[in-house]
Amino acid sequence: MVHGAQSVPVEGRQSGARVVIVDDHPVFRLGLKFLIDGRAEANVVGEGSCAADVRRLAQLEPDLFVIDLMLSDSNAIENIREILIHAPNTRILVVSMLDEVLYAERCVRAGAHGYLTKSDAVTDLVTAMLRVLCGDIYLGERVMRQIARRVAGGGAVKDPVASLSDREIEVFQLLGQGHRPGEIAEMLHLSRKTIESHQAKLKRKLGVTSSSELLRMALDWNRDPVGFDPV
For the whole model, what pTM was predicted? Predict the structure, then answer.
């Protein structure tokens, strides 16, 4: 069952849930910890800021993993898969600066159980956390509004990045973060030849002919995925 933002009755709440947080913004991470530790239903048992921390904390097999959509050295799709390898029963809640349906859908498809924007997190984090722990899929209010608008508009998706596979988005994002193909191959545990093949597919799907054009587009998209215009 998918829930948007709403109140949660006290009865039947999960108690004593073990929560870990991975976010590369220390102030935001501290705020989440404060919100969670202020509740009787859960407590934070670990924190981190990078992909190495994701692997380390997943081995704790927490009840709930709260993770940022885009860490400086990895992204949510990659991290969701990593968490589920080490802790298949852990529930995952993704928090993001972006209220973009594209990311929410892909995160849930990869195995996440909820998606919440950081602007909603202050008021809705506890609700989202409890819904996810109770077995529901939770999407924040802003994402739910976007879904409603898209359905009302006939479901058309104008963002060309929406046509990319999850792996292609990973490569595109890492290019936009300034990583070279060899570095990306190491980060994703793939061969350089495979990364170059993904680059060729990215050029074709995004309508560019050179690596420099692709890099410029990746940089633009990384700066503002929601407002991205390939023209």
Answer: 0.73
